[in-house]
Amino acid sequence: MTVVLKNPKGKVTVKMRAGGAEQGSGDGEKRGRKASKETRRQQLIEATIDSLAKRGYSDTTLADVADGAGLSRGIVNFHFESKENLLVATLQFMSEEYGDHWNSALEKAGPSVASRLWAIVHADFDRKICTKRKLAAWCAFWGEAKSRPTYQALCGARDVKYQETVIALCADLKAEGGYDYEPEPMALSLCAMLEGLWLRLMMGDGTTREKALEAAIAFVVVVFPRHLTLQGPKPQ
Amino acid sequence: MTVVLKNPKGKVTVKMRAGGAEQGSGDGEKRGRKASKETRRQQLIEATIDSLAKRGYSDTTLADVADGAGLSRGIVNFHFESKENLLVATLQFMSEEYGDHWNSALEKAGPSVASRLWAIVHADFDRKICTKRKLAAWCAFWGEAKSRPTYQALCGARDVKYQETVIALCADLKAEGGYDYEPEPMALSLCAMLEGLWLRLMMGDGTTREKALEAAIAFVVVVFPRHLTLQGPKPQ
DNA sequence: AGATACTTGCTGAATGATCATTCAGAATAT
DNA sequence: ATATTCTGAATGATCATTCAGCAAGTATCT
User: Is A57 near chain B, with CB under 8 Å?
Assistant: First the structure.
Protein backbone atom coordinates (compact mmCIF):
# COMPACT_ATOMS: atom_id res chain seq x y z
CA MET A 1 0.00 0.00 0.00
CA THR A 2 1.37 3.38 -1.00
CA VAL A 3 0.36 6.68 0.52
CA VAL A 4 0.62 9.79 -1.59
CA LEU A 5 -0.02 13.16 0.02
CA LYS A 6 -0.25 16.47 -1.69
CA ASN A 7 0.67 19.79 -0.17
CA PRO A 8 -1.39 22.95 -0.73
CA LYS A 9 0.54 23.74 -3.86
CA GLY A 10 -0.60 20.42 -5.31
CA LYS A 11 2.87 18.94 -5.53
CA VAL A 12 3.61 15.42 -4.35
CA THR A 13 5.70 15.76 -1.24
CA VAL A 14 5.49 12.50 0.64
CA LYS A 15 5.63 9.06 -0.85
CA MET A 16 6.42 6.34 1.59
CA ARG A 17 5.33 2.92 2.62
CA ALA A 18 2.71 2.47 5.27
CA GLY A 19 2.14 -0.80 7.10
CA GLY A 20 4.12 -3.58 8.62
CA ALA A 21 7.21 -4.03 6.53
CA GLU A 22 9.36 -1.73 8.60
CA GLN A 23 12.15 -4.09 9.53
CA GLY A 24 15.07 -1.70 9.51
CA SER A 25 17.37 -1.14 12.42
CA GLY A 26 16.75 1.16 15.37
CA ASP A 27 13.38 2.81 15.88
CA GLY A 28 14.72 6.31 15.57
CA GLU A 29 15.76 5.69 11.97
CA LYS A 30 14.39 7.89 9.29
CA ARG A 31 12.11 6.49 6.59
CA GLY A 32 11.12 7.38 3.07
CA ARG A 33 13.64 9.38 1.16
CA LYS A 34 15.56 10.14 4.28
CA ALA A 35 16.60 6.62 5.14
CA SER A 36 20.35 6.22 5.35
CA LYS A 37 22.21 3.93 3.00
CA GLU A 38 22.77 1.39 5.75
CA THR A 39 19.14 1.38 6.76
CA ARG A 40 18.07 0.82 3.19
CA ARG A 41 20.51 -2.03 2.75
CA GLN A 42 19.27 -3.69 5.92
CA GLN A 43 15.69 -3.23 4.81
CA LEU A 44 16.48 -4.95 1.52
CA ILE A 45 18.31 -7.77 3.28
CA GLU A 46 15.27 -8.42 5.44
CA ALA A 47 13.07 -8.42 2.37
CA THR A 48 15.46 -10.90 0.77
CA ILE A 49 15.18 -13.28 3.73
CA ASP A 50 11.40 -13.00 3.44
CA SER A 51 11.52 -13.82 -0.23
CA LEU A 52 13.90 -16.75 0.22
CA ALA A 53 11.63 -18.15 2.91
CA LYS A 54 8.46 -17.62 0.93
CA ARG A 55 9.53 -18.61 -2.57
CA GLY A 56 12.86 -20.43 -2.24
CA TYR A 57 16.18 -19.53 -3.79
CA SER A 58 15.35 -20.18 -7.40
CA ASP A 59 12.12 -18.17 -7.33
CA THR A 60 13.53 -15.19 -5.48
CA THR A 61 13.48 -12.26 -7.88
CA LEU A 62 14.63 -8.71 -7.45
CA ALA A 63 11.10 -7.60 -8.24
CA ASP A 64 9.80 -9.64 -5.30
CA VAL A 65 12.46 -8.25 -2.97
CA ALA A 66 11.70 -4.70 -4.06
CA ASP A 67 7.97 -5.24 -3.63
CA GLY A 68 8.55 -6.74 -0.20
CA ALA A 69 10.50 -3.66 0.81
CA GLY A 70 7.86 -1.38 -0.67
CA LEU A 71 10.35 0.18 -3.06
CA SER A 72 10.80 0.38 -6.78
CA ARG A 73 12.22 -2.15 -9.20
CA GLY A 74 15.64 -0.68 -9.72
CA ILE A 75 16.37 -0.32 -6.03
CA VAL A 76 18.49 -3.40 -5.48
CA ASN A 77 20.92 -2.62 -8.27
CA PHE A 78 21.15 0.90 -6.91
CA HIS A 79 22.18 -0.22 -3.43
CA PHE A 80 23.90 -3.55 -4.15
CA GLU A 81 24.99 -3.35 -7.80
CA SER A 82 23.79 -6.89 -8.50
CA LYS A 83 21.52 -9.65 -7.28
CA GLU A 84 24.54 -11.76 -6.41
CA ASN A 85 25.86 -9.02 -4.13
CA LEU A 86 22.53 -8.78 -2.37
CA LEU A 87 22.45 -12.51 -1.72
CA VAL A 88 26.01 -12.56 -0.43
CA ALA A 89 25.28 -9.61 1.86
CA THR A 90 22.20 -11.45 3.13
CA LEU A 91 24.16 -14.61 3.90
CA GLN A 92 26.87 -12.52 5.55
CA PHE A 93 24.31 -10.85 7.74
CA MET A 94 22.76 -14.13 8.83
CA SER A 95 26.16 -15.62 9.44
CA GLU A 96 27.23 -12.74 11.67
CA GLU A 97 23.96 -12.70 13.54
CA TYR A 98 24.28 -16.42 14.21
CA GLY A 99 27.87 -16.12 15.39
CA ASP A 100 27.11 -13.14 17.63
CA HIS A 101 24.20 -15.00 19.13
CA TRP A 102 26.00 -18.09 20.34
CA ASN A 103 29.03 -16.09 21.40
CA SER A 104 26.93 -13.89 23.61
CA ALA A 105 25.10 -16.96 24.92
CA LEU A 106 28.49 -18.33 25.97
CA GLU A 107 29.39 -15.07 27.68
CA LYS A 108 26.15 -15.03 29.62
CA ALA A 109 26.56 -18.67 30.68
CA GLY A 110 27.95 -19.71 34.02
CA PRO A 111 31.68 -20.38 34.31
CA SER A 112 31.44 -24.17 34.38
CA VAL A 113 32.05 -26.13 31.21
CA ALA A 114 28.76 -27.95 31.71
CA SER A 115 26.72 -24.77 31.77
CA ARG A 116 28.58 -23.46 28.74
CA LEU A 117 27.69 -26.55 26.72
CA TRP A 118 24.14 -26.30 27.99
CA ALA A 119 24.02 -22.66 26.86
CA ILE A 120 25.43 -23.24 23.39
CA VAL A 121 22.96 -26.03 22.69
CA HIS A 122 20.04 -23.93 23.86
CA ALA A 123 21.24 -20.95 21.81
CA ASP A 124 20.56 -22.86 18.59
CA PHE A 125 16.88 -23.13 19.44
CA ASP A 126 16.38 -19.62 20.71
CA ARG A 127 13.39 -17.80 19.24
CA LYS A 128 15.61 -15.05 17.92
CA ILE A 129 17.62 -17.39 15.69
CA CYS A 130 15.39 -20.34 15.18
CA THR A 131 12.43 -18.99 13.22
CA LYS A 132 10.77 -20.65 10.24
CA ARG A 133 11.76 -17.63 8.19
CA LYS A 134 15.47 -17.74 8.93
CA LEU A 135 15.77 -21.51 8.85
CA ALA A 136 14.21 -21.50 5.40
CA ALA A 137 16.69 -18.88 4.24
CA TRP A 138 19.62 -20.89 5.63
CA CYS A 139 18.38 -23.97 3.84
CA ALA A 140 18.05 -22.07 0.58
CA PHE A 141 21.71 -21.09 0.80
CA TRP A 142 22.82 -24.57 1.81
CA GLY A 143 21.14 -25.90 -1.29
CA GLU A 144 23.23 -23.65 -3.49
CA ALA A 145 26.43 -23.72 -1.49
CA LYS A 146 28.09 -26.71 -3.10
CA SER A 147 28.15 -25.09 -6.50
CA ARG A 148 29.00 -21.57 -5.27
CA PRO A 149 32.32 -21.14 -3.53
CA THR A 150 31.29 -17.81 -2.02
CA TYR A 151 28.32 -19.31 -0.22
CA GLN A 152 30.35 -22.32 0.76
CA ALA A 153 32.98 -20.12 2.36
CA LEU A 154 30.41 -18.14 4.31
CA CYS A 155 28.53 -21.22 5.50
CA GLY A 156 31.81 -22.91 6.31
CA ALA A 157 33.07 -19.95 8.33
CA ARG A 158 29.87 -20.22 10.34
CA ASP A 159 30.58 -23.81 11.19
CA VAL A 160 34.31 -23.97 11.75
CA LYS A 161 34.41 -21.62 14.72
CA TYR A 162 31.35 -23.22 16.23
CA GLN A 163 32.69 -26.71 15.89
CA GLU A 164 36.09 -25.80 17.33
CA THR A 165 34.31 -24.37 20.34
CA VAL A 166 32.25 -27.50 20.80
CA ILE A 167 35.34 -29.70 20.46
CA ALA A 168 37.03 -27.70 23.19
CA LEU A 169 34.00 -28.05 25.45
CA CYS A 170 33.86 -31.80 24.86
CA ALA A 171 37.58 -32.08 25.57
CA ASP A 172 37.22 -30.14 28.82
CA LEU A 173 34.31 -32.28 29.95
CA LYS A 174 36.28 -35.41 29.17
CA ALA A 175 39.19 -34.12 31.24
CA GLU A 176 36.87 -33.33 34.13
CA GLY A 177 34.63 -36.35 34.07
CA GLY A 178 36.64 -39.27 32.88
CA TYR A 179 34.61 -40.10 29.80
CA ASP A 180 36.56 -42.31 27.47
CA TYR A 181 35.64 -41.23 23.96
CA GLU A 182 37.41 -38.87 21.58
CA PRO A 183 36.27 -35.24 21.63
CA GLU A 184 36.42 -34.72 17.85
CA PRO A 185 33.97 -37.36 16.68
CA MET A 186 31.70 -36.58 19.62
CA ALA A 187 31.68 -32.88 18.79
CA LEU A 188 31.13 -33.62 15.12
CA SER A 189 28.14 -35.78 15.86
CA LEU A 190 26.76 -33.15 18.21
CA CYS A 191 27.16 -30.33 15.66
CA ALA A 192 25.75 -32.48 12.88
CA MET A 193 22.76 -33.32 15.00
CA LEU A 194 22.04 -29.67 15.69
CA GLU A 195 22.16 -28.87 11.98
CA GLY A 196 20.08 -31.91 11.19
CA LEU A 197 17.44 -30.76 13.66
CA TRP A 198 17.37 -27.38 11.92
CA LEU A 199 16.85 -29.17 8.65
CA ARG A 200 13.92 -31.05 10.15
CA LEU A 201 12.40 -27.87 11.51
CA MET A 202 12.54 -26.31 8.07
CA MET A 203 11.14 -29.28 6.26
CA GLY A 204 8.00 -28.92 8.26
CA ASP A 205 7.39 -32.54 9.16
CA GLY A 206 5.95 -32.78 12.63
CA THR A 207 9.13 -31.58 14.33
CA THR A 208 8.61 -28.54 16.56
CA ARG A 209 11.15 -26.33 18.24
CA GLU A 210 10.31 -27.96 21.57
CA LYS A 211 10.74 -31.51 20.29
CA ALA A 212 13.99 -30.57 18.60
CA LEU A 213 15.38 -29.05 21.76
CA GLU A 214 14.21 -32.08 23.72
CA ALA A 215 16.09 -34.37 21.33
CA ALA A 216 19.24 -32.28 21.53
CA ILE A 217 19.09 -32.29 25.31
CA ALA A 218 18.48 -36.04 25.39
CA PHE A 219 21.67 -36.43 23.38
CA VAL A 220 24.00 -34.34 25.52
CA VAL A 221 22.58 -35.73 28.76
CA VAL A 222 23.30 -39.29 27.61
CA VAL A 223 26.77 -38.37 26.45
CA PHE A 224 27.77 -36.37 29.53
CA PRO A 225 25.74 -37.92 32.34
CA ARG A 226 28.17 -36.78 35.02
CA HIS A 227 27.73 -33.13 34.05
CA LEU A 228 24.21 -32.74 32.73
CA THR A 229 20.68 -33.79 33.61
CA LEU A 230 17.46 -33.27 31.69
CA GLN A 231 16.82 -30.33 34.02
CA GLY A 232 20.11 -28.55 33.40
CA PRO A 233 23.84 -28.62 34.16
CA LYS A 234 24.74 -30.26 37.43
CA PRO A 235 26.34 -27.98 40.03
CA GLN A 236 30.04 -28.72 39.94
CA MET B 1 31.88 -36.36 -27.64
CA THR B 2 29.57 -37.27 -30.49
CA VAL B 3 30.17 -39.98 -33.05
CA VAL B 4 28.65 -39.65 -36.48
CA LEU B 5 28.84 -42.60 -38.87
CA LYS B 6 27.80 -42.68 -42.47
CA ASN B 7 26.57 -45.72 -44.32
CA PRO B 8 27.55 -46.50 -47.92
CA LYS B 9 24.74 -44.34 -49.24
CA GLY B 10 26.23 -41.41 -47.43
CA LYS B 11 23.32 -40.91 -45.11
CA VAL B 12 23.80 -40.34 -41.40
CA THR B 13 22.50 -43.43 -39.68
CA VAL B 14 23.96 -43.55 -36.21
CA LYS B 15 24.41 -40.67 -33.88
CA MET B 16 25.04 -41.66 -30.34
CA ARG B 17 27.05 -40.83 -27.36
CA ALA B 18 30.39 -42.45 -26.76
CA GLY B 19 32.26 -42.30 -23.49
CA GLY B 20 31.63 -42.62 -19.82
CA ALA B 21 28.21 -41.17 -19.19
CA GLU B 22 26.43 -44.45 -19.61
CA GLN B 23 24.78 -44.71 -16.25
CA GLY B 24 21.50 -46.25 -17.32
CA SER B 25 20.13 -49.47 -15.99
CA GLY B 26 21.13 -52.98 -17.02
CA ASP B 27 24.08 -53.56 -19.31
CA GLY B 28 22.05 -55.36 -21.96
CA GLU B 29 19.99 -52.24 -22.68
CA LYS B 30 19.99 -50.81 -26.14
CA ARG B 31 21.39 -47.37 -26.93
CA GLY B 32 20.93 -44.80 -29.63
CA ARG B 33 17.55 -44.72 -31.28
CA LYS B 34 16.76 -48.13 -29.97
CA ALA B 35 16.72 -47.29 -26.32
CA SER B 36 13.44 -48.04 -24.65
CA LYS B 37 11.40 -45.32 -23.09
CA GLU B 38 12.35 -46.42 -19.59
CA THR B 39 16.05 -46.52 -20.42
CA ARG B 40 15.86 -43.04 -21.87
CA ARG B 41 14.07 -41.71 -18.82
CA GLN B 42 16.63 -43.25 -16.52
CA GLN B 43 19.44 -41.81 -18.62
CA LEU B 44 17.92 -38.36 -18.33
CA ILE B 45 17.41 -38.74 -14.59
CA GLU B 46 21.10 -39.58 -14.18
CA ALA B 47 22.04 -36.56 -16.26
CA THR B 48 19.78 -34.46 -14.04
CA ILE B 49 21.55 -35.65 -10.91
CA ASP B 50 24.85 -34.77 -12.58
CA SER B 51 23.63 -31.31 -13.41
CA LEU B 52 22.21 -30.69 -9.96
CA ALA B 53 25.51 -31.74 -8.44
CA LYS B 54 27.61 -29.70 -10.83
CA ARG B 55 25.60 -26.51 -11.12
CA GLY B 56 23.04 -26.53 -8.30
CA TYR B 57 19.30 -26.38 -8.55
CA SER B 58 18.93 -22.87 -9.85
CA ASP B 59 21.48 -23.32 -12.63
CA THR B 60 20.25 -26.66 -13.82
CA THR B 61 18.83 -26.19 -17.30
CA LEU B 62 17.21 -28.60 -19.68
CA ALA B 63 19.94 -27.78 -22.17
CA ASP B 64 22.58 -28.90 -19.67
CA VAL B 65 20.70 -32.10 -18.90
CA ALA B 66 20.29 -32.86 -22.60
CA ASP B 67 23.97 -32.17 -23.27
CA GLY B 68 24.92 -34.37 -20.32
CA ALA B 69 22.87 -37.20 -21.77
CA GLY B 70 24.33 -36.58 -25.23
CA LEU B 71 20.89 -35.92 -26.69
CA SER B 72 19.12 -33.01 -28.29
CA ARG B 73 17.47 -29.99 -26.73
CA GLY B 74 13.85 -31.03 -26.98
CA ILE B 75 14.43 -34.46 -25.47
CA VAL B 76 13.29 -33.77 -21.93
CA ASN B 77 9.93 -32.35 -22.93
CA PHE B 78 9.50 -35.34 -25.20
CA HIS B 79 10.02 -37.85 -22.40
CA PHE B 80 8.86 -35.90 -19.36
CA GLU B 81 6.56 -33.19 -20.70
CA SER B 82 8.10 -30.53 -18.47
CA LYS B 83 11.15 -29.66 -16.44
CA GLU B 84 9.13 -29.92 -13.26
CA ASN B 85 8.17 -33.50 -14.10
CA LEU B 86 11.78 -34.40 -14.71
CA LEU B 87 12.84 -33.02 -11.35
CA VAL B 88 10.04 -34.78 -9.52
CA ALA B 89 10.92 -38.05 -11.24
CA THR B 90 14.55 -37.55 -10.25
CA LEU B 91 13.67 -36.97 -6.62
CA GLN B 92 11.33 -39.94 -6.69
CA PHE B 93 14.10 -42.13 -8.07
CA MET B 94 16.57 -41.04 -5.41
CA SER B 95 13.97 -41.48 -2.71
CA GLU B 96 13.18 -45.02 -3.81
CA GLU B 97 16.81 -45.93 -4.20
CA TYR B 98 17.51 -44.67 -0.70
CA GLY B 99 14.56 -46.54 0.79
CA ASP B 100 15.42 -49.77 -1.01
CA HIS B 101 18.98 -49.49 0.16
CA TRP B 102 18.38 -49.29 3.88
CA ASN B 103 15.56 -51.80 3.69
CA SER B 104 17.80 -54.34 2.06
CA ALA B 105 20.54 -53.51 4.56
CA LEU B 106 18.07 -54.38 7.32
CA GLU B 107 17.18 -57.64 5.63
CA LYS B 108 20.80 -58.63 5.30
CA ALA B 109 21.54 -57.75 8.92
CA GLY B 110 21.61 -60.29 11.69
CA PRO B 111 18.42 -60.94 13.65
CA SER B 112 19.42 -59.06 16.79
CA VAL B 113 18.18 -55.53 17.30
CA ALA B 114 21.73 -54.37 17.90
CA SER B 115 22.97 -55.63 14.56
CA ARG B 116 19.98 -54.12 12.81
CA LEU B 117 20.70 -50.68 14.24
CA TRP B 118 24.34 -51.13 13.33
CA ALA B 119 23.34 -52.00 9.78
CA ILE B 120 20.98 -49.11 9.28
CA VAL B 121 23.57 -46.60 10.46
CA HIS B 122 26.22 -48.06 8.18
CA ALA B 123 23.82 -48.09 5.24
CA ASP B 124 23.72 -44.29 5.25
CA PHE B 125 27.43 -44.13 4.57
CA ASP B 126 27.64 -46.86 2.00
CA ARG B 127 29.50 -45.94 -1.18
CA LYS B 128 26.44 -46.68 -3.28
CA ILE B 129 24.31 -44.06 -1.58
CA CYS B 130 26.78 -41.67 -0.08
CA THR B 131 28.53 -40.10 -3.06
CA LYS B 132 29.33 -36.43 -3.52
CA ARG B 133 27.12 -36.44 -6.56
CA LYS B 134 24.01 -37.77 -4.88
CA LEU B 135 24.47 -35.85 -1.66
CA ALA B 136 24.67 -32.66 -3.67
CA ALA B 137 21.48 -33.53 -5.49
CA TRP B 138 19.69 -34.26 -2.22
CA CYS B 139 20.82 -30.96 -0.84
CA ALA B 140 19.61 -29.13 -3.92
CA PHE B 141 16.15 -30.57 -3.39
CA TRP B 142 16.17 -29.84 0.34
CA GLY B 143 16.89 -26.23 -0.44
CA GLU B 144 13.78 -25.98 -2.56
CA ALA B 145 11.55 -28.28 -0.54
CA LYS B 146 10.13 -25.75 1.87
CA SER B 147 8.51 -23.75 -0.92
CA ARG B 148 7.46 -26.74 -3.02
CA PRO B 149 4.91 -29.07 -1.50
CA THR B 150 5.71 -31.83 -4.00
CA TYR B 151 9.36 -31.97 -3.02
CA GLN B 152 8.46 -31.67 0.62
CA ALA B 153 6.15 -34.65 0.37
CA LEU B 154 8.81 -36.76 -1.35
CA CYS B 155 11.57 -35.80 1.09
CA GLY B 156 9.16 -36.28 3.97
CA ALA B 157 8.14 -39.72 2.77
CA ARG B 158 11.80 -40.64 2.77
CA ASP B 159 12.17 -39.66 6.38
CA VAL B 160 8.97 -40.80 8.03
CA LYS B 161 9.44 -44.51 7.35
CA TYR B 162 13.09 -44.34 8.28
CA GLN B 163 12.44 -42.54 11.51
CA GLU B 164 9.63 -44.89 12.52
CA THR B 165 12.01 -47.79 11.98
CA VAL B 166 14.68 -46.16 14.11
CA ILE B 167 12.18 -45.35 16.85
CA ALA B 168 11.15 -49.02 16.91
CA LEU B 169 14.79 -50.11 17.11
CA CYS B 170 15.46 -47.71 19.97
CA ALA B 171 12.35 -48.89 21.79
CA ASP B 172 13.41 -52.53 21.41
CA LEU B 173 16.90 -51.79 22.67
CA LYS B 174 15.43 -49.95 25.64
CA ALA B 175 13.22 -52.94 26.44
CA GLU B 176 16.19 -55.29 26.21
CA GLY B 177 18.79 -53.24 27.94
CA GLY B 178 17.16 -51.16 30.59
CA TYR B 179 18.15 -47.77 29.27
CA ASP B 180 15.99 -45.10 30.82
CA TYR B 181 15.43 -42.52 28.09
CA GLU B 182 12.51 -42.09 25.70
CA PRO B 183 12.84 -43.74 22.27
CA GLU B 184 11.29 -40.86 20.30
CA PRO B 185 13.69 -38.04 21.19
CA MET B 186 16.61 -40.43 20.99
CA ALA B 187 15.61 -41.62 17.52
CA LEU B 188 14.99 -38.06 16.40
CA SER B 189 18.44 -36.97 17.50
CA LEU B 190 19.98 -39.99 15.81
CA CYS B 191 18.17 -39.37 12.53
CA ALA B 192 18.93 -35.67 12.65
CA MET B 193 22.59 -36.43 13.23
CA LEU B 194 22.75 -38.71 10.21
CA GLU B 195 21.20 -36.02 8.02
CA GLY B 196 23.44 -33.40 9.51
CA LEU B 197 26.48 -35.52 8.68
CA TRP B 198 25.26 -35.77 5.09
CA LEU B 199 24.97 -32.01 5.02
CA ARG B 200 28.55 -31.72 6.23
CA LEU B 201 29.78 -34.15 3.61
CA MET B 202 28.16 -32.09 0.89
CA MET B 203 29.41 -28.79 2.13
CA GLY B 204 32.92 -29.98 1.62
CA ASP B 205 34.49 -28.79 4.83
CA GLY B 206 37.06 -31.29 5.99
CA THR B 207 34.49 -33.97 6.80
CA THR B 208 35.11 -37.26 5.02
CA ARG B 209 32.91 -40.32 4.77
CA GLU B 210 35.17 -42.11 7.24
CA LYS B 211 35.04 -39.33 9.83
CA ALA B 212 31.30 -39.03 9.44
CA LEU B 213 30.79 -42.74 9.98
CA GLU B 214 33.15 -42.61 12.95
CA ALA B 215 31.08 -39.83 14.52
CA ALA B 216 27.83 -41.67 13.92
CA ILE B 217 29.27 -44.83 15.49
CA ALA B 218 30.63 -42.89 18.46
CA PHE B 219 27.13 -41.63 19.06
CA VAL B 220 25.27 -44.95 18.98
CA VAL B 221 27.95 -46.66 21.03
CA VAL B 222 27.62 -44.08 23.77
CA VAL B 223 23.84 -44.26 23.70
CA PHE B 224 23.58 -48.05 23.68
CA PRO B 225 26.72 -49.22 25.47
CA ARG B 226 25.17 -52.54 26.46
CA HIS B 227 24.51 -53.48 22.86
CA LEU B 228 27.21 -51.84 20.76
CA THR B 229 30.96 -51.33 20.80
CA LEU B 230 33.14 -49.35 18.45
CA GLN B 231 33.92 -52.65 16.75
CA GLY B 232 30.33 -53.69 16.14
CA PRO B 233 27.20 -55.05 17.78
CA LYS B 234 27.82 -57.18 20.85
CA PRO B 235 26.78 -60.80 20.59
CA GLN B 236 23.55 -61.15 22.52
C1' DA C 1 13.84 34.84 3.96
C1' DG C 2 13.79 33.41 -0.84
C1' DA C 3 16.00 32.00 -4.99
C1' DT C 4 19.48 29.15 -7.21
C1' DA C 5 22.45 25.46 -8.22
C1' DC C 6 24.10 21.10 -6.87
C1' DT C 7 23.97 16.37 -4.63
C1' DT C 8 21.82 12.20 -3.44
C1' DG C 9 18.18 8.76 -3.41
C1' DC C 10 15.00 6.75 -6.07
C1' DT C 11 11.87 5.37 -10.03
C1' DG C 12 10.15 2.53 -13.77
C1' DA C 13 10.24 1.83 -18.69
C1' DA C 14 13.38 -0.17 -22.02
C1' DT C 15 16.88 -3.63 -23.15
C1' DG C 16 18.83 -7.82 -23.80
C1' DA C 17 19.95 -12.42 -22.06
C1' DT C 18 18.48 -16.80 -20.65
C1' DC C 19 15.62 -20.55 -20.84
C1' DA C 20 11.36 -23.76 -21.03
C1' DT C 21 8.33 -25.16 -24.35
C1' DT C 22 6.53 -26.13 -28.98
C1' DC C 23 6.33 -28.38 -33.22
C1' DA C 24 7.23 -29.45 -38.08
C1' DG C 25 9.72 -32.61 -39.98
C1' DA C 26 13.74 -36.00 -40.12
C1' DA C 27 15.54 -40.49 -38.88
C1' DT C 28 14.70 -45.02 -37.55
C1' DA C 29 12.14 -49.17 -36.44
C1' DT C 30 8.28 -52.45 -37.52
C1' DA D 1 3.64 -47.85 -45.29
C1' DT D 2 3.09 -46.60 -40.62
C1' DA D 3 4.47 -45.77 -36.05
C1' DT D 4 7.92 -44.37 -32.93
C1' DT D 5 11.70 -41.73 -31.39
C1' DC D 6 14.17 -37.83 -31.79
C1' DT D 7 15.94 -33.19 -33.49
C1' DG D 8 16.78 -28.25 -33.36
C1' DA D 9 15.09 -23.83 -34.84
C1' DA D 10 11.45 -20.68 -33.48
C1' DT D 11 8.61 -18.67 -29.87
C1' DG D 12 7.47 -16.36 -25.99
C1' DA D 13 8.00 -15.66 -21.03
C1' DT D 14 10.71 -14.26 -17.27
C1' DC D 15 13.99 -11.58 -15.20
C1' DA D 16 18.50 -8.91 -14.14
C1' DT D 17 20.37 -4.85 -15.44
C1' DT D 18 20.60 -0.14 -17.29
C1' DC D 19 19.77 4.58 -17.32
C1' DA D 20 17.45 8.98 -18.24
C1' DG D 21 15.01 11.65 -15.50
C1' DC D 22 12.38 13.09 -11.27
C1' DA D 23 12.10 14.36 -6.42
C1' DA D 24 14.00 15.48 -1.92
C1' DG D 25 17.56 17.37 0.57
C1' DT D 26 21.53 20.73 1.17
C1' DA D 27 24.66 24.48 0.30
C1' DT D 28 25.45 29.07 -1.52
C1' DC D 29 24.18 33.44 -2.79
C1' DT D 30 21.23 37.54 -2.83
Answer: yes
